[in-house]
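step: validate -> pass
step: tokenize input -> pass
step: predict -> running
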Amino acid sequence: MSQYKVKKLDHPIHCTVEVPGSKSITNRALLMAALSQGECTLKGVLFSDDSRHFLLSLIALGYIIEVNEVERYVIIHGHGRDIPKKRATINVGSAGTAARFLTAMLALSDGEYTIEASEQMKKRPMLPLFEALQSMGAEFEFLEKDGHLPVNVKGAAYGGKKPQNNVSISISESTQFLSALMMTSPMLEEGIHVHITSNKTEGSYVRITAKMMEQFGCVVDHEGAEYVVPAGSGYYPQTYYIEPDVSAACYFYAAAALTGGTAIVKGVHSNSMQGDLKFIDVLKQMGCAVTEEREGICVSGPKDGEYCGVDVDMNDFSDQSMTLAAIAPFAKTTTVIKNIEHIRLQESDRIEAMVNELNNLGVDVKEGRDRIEISPANVKPGVVDTYNDHRMAMSFALIGLRVDGIIIDNYECCCKTFENYFEVLEKACAQ
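step: predict -> pass
step: emit ->
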């Protein structure tokens, strides 16, 4: 595994950057396009490990797809409820969205399939989704560990069967389970009624799903713990524009706070549907100024990077927990990040990863089941273990902008969602 030494900045960052398309929106759009009634053109597509696994899976299922990575577009010929190939093997890699969304798609079909995955994805939770799909008529043969990938799937409509369309599910471990059921509901003639059994009944990514389904012509009725997609729903073929990735943009906004500089991310505006936009409100609380420019949102950090710590519930935008953790040691007061227990079950145990790596850099961190408390510190140089987690690599690299001698181990894991992150960061620092 290779290492990347972050170059310490001796001046505030002042940058205007362009980030890739949103992973969350890209992979949702790929699924909806495949289930549409004709040709869809997706523009601004993210090309990364996760989205390529999704694309290759669709191709393995028989979909005709034209890909142009230079111009960042994809053309997909949708087949409505009908998956072109009735038998196939797909590999979702480490992509949680591909794993959950395509499992639901295949489980509601009339075919037989095998779903393979990376060692990392094999460990991530899937059982609530499997149980919900089994209750709808799907059959699963677990090939290694019960409730986990890899798995053989026999669709709920196999042999002319009629899938059940009333289903209950817990989304305490991942809202992707609900998004998977919602997005694949047009495969069911009678629609779907989903009852949520967990205390958590919604979230920012579920709202993205519902908004995109509406944009593709499919209405979702939601009240409390109930989600209903009416009978006869379907997706319209169209040209669809994918927003820039706000999760990626937040690293540059954080860099502005950290160095007392400014960052504009092209195409990121306050009307974005992405929940990670809430991180900008956190930066405001810390003392940053935020304005909306023609090119995109601009974040200006406090002079000399002198900002306050915060106490914040990050359940609904938890991907930014690590970004906040990276800049928290440089704050004037303690930072508390809470209600994030579910991130222990993602690409890594992200709470444990943050605590370990901050401790290794001389930062005092108190760990709870669903929270961390980070004290101001004189951060020392060191090697950061990324745990093969793209967000650990990208967020903890920010520390190196303030501290000389920060080395990111296995930095290439950022390819999961932002292949040229370190190149873009270098150019941003040189502007």
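step: describe -> The first helix runs from residue 23 to 34.
step: cleanup -> pass
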